[in-house]
Amino acid sequence: MLILSSFFAQSQIINVENLRRVTDTSGWSGYTRFDFQLIKNKNSIFVLSNDVRVQYKTKNHLWLLINDVDFKKANSTKLVSKNAQHLRYNYRFHSKITWEAFLQSQEDEISAIRFRGLAGTGFRFKFFKSEEYKFYLGSLLMFEHENSNSQIKRIHNDWRNSSYLSFSLYPKENVTVVSTTYFQPRLNQFSDFRVSSQTSVILTIFKNLAFTATFSYQFDKFPVEGVPKEQYTLKNGLVYSFD
Question: At the top level of its lineage, which domain of life is listed (predicted)?
Answer without folding.
Answer: Bacteria
